[in-house]
Amino acid sequence: MISISILDLTTLSTLVFIMGGLLWINGFRHVKQFWLANLRMVVQLLFMGIWLSWLFYSDNVLWVVLVGGIMLIAAGYEISKRQQYRFQKMQSFWIGLLALSFTALVLLVSVLVFIVQPDPWYQPQYFIPLLGMLLGNSMTAIGLGLDTLTRSSVQLKSKIEAQLALGKTAKESMAFIKEQSLHSVMIPVINMLVAAGIISLPGMMTGQILAGIEPIEAVKYQIMILFLIATSTGMGALIAIELATRKLFDNRQRLTLNGLKRA
Predict the structure, then answer these.
(1) Which pLDDT score is estimated for 154?
(2) What is the mean pLDDT of residues 127-140?
(3) CA Rg value for the chain
(4) Domain count along the chain
(5) In b/e form, how buried is each residue of 148-161, taking b as 16+ CB within 10 angstroms?
(6) What's the rounded Cα separation, in Å, for the pair 82 and 139?
(7) Is residue 1's pLDDT more than 70?
(8) Containing domain of residue 27, as a range?
């Protein structure tokens, strides 16, 4: 595999700087955030690269669990940060964390134990990259679903309460908003699946091919991860939306938006 030097990456970084200037000229006023996001990305990936280089040679499940736990917590935090209206007392964080744990984590462990079968099953070379891909996609989907649900609930409060007044249950009055939330989550996933292979070559497959893996083997791994992404995003969104919907009503099925605060 051809190596990329630090000098090469430094040269490429000038493109980001130039792009920021062009965006500013054309009216985009968050260029600083754009630059800081790229800087944060570089620092995080370099740290993870150094950390994983050491982790891959260790044979301790506790270190793998620690890294996986940190990734889960970070993903749960990002879910809560991506909502315009958040639940108070870190409830958005816990909803996201539970949804991720019951989908991405459970699916990954099952696949490693019964399908990929590395020895040991928690081998970092497989566990960490696959968990990262699942968490990244599930985090985006769950955050988008929760944001659509809470924002629509605030905007359509009178409509929901009117349906409740007509005798509908909380579940019935929220059905159309939950449908919108799931639509916002699953359409990007469907578009990704439709484009895979013809319009775009997914990242995992491209990386394996660049590393010298036979294309057909890379394709099989990519199909596996796309199946997992489709399942984890859908199931994670379902769990998160259901938990969040229950938080919007009290024991008497009255809509209570006091637990939400605007970011």
Answers:
(1) 93
(2) 91
(3) 21
(4) 2
(5) bbbbbbeebeeebe
(6) 10
(7) no
(8) 1-55
8 Å CB contact between 103 and 145: no
Residue 57 corresponds to which tokens in the numbers above? 């040679």
Q: What is the pLDDT of residues 5-57, one digit of tens each?
A: 888 888 889 999 999 999 999 888 899 999 999 999 999 888 888 888 888 77
pLDDT (tens digit per residue) in 188-218: 999 989 988 888 777 777 778 877 888 898 8
Whether 125 and 215 map to the same domain: the answer is yes
Q: What angle do CA 230, 226, 192 make, to 5 degrees?
A: 75
Please tell me whether residues 94 and 214 are part of one structural domain. yes
**Upstream peptide bond of 120 is cis (omega within 30 degrees of 0):** yes
Q: Do 81 and 208 lie in a common domain?
A: yes
Residues 73 and 141 in one domain: yes
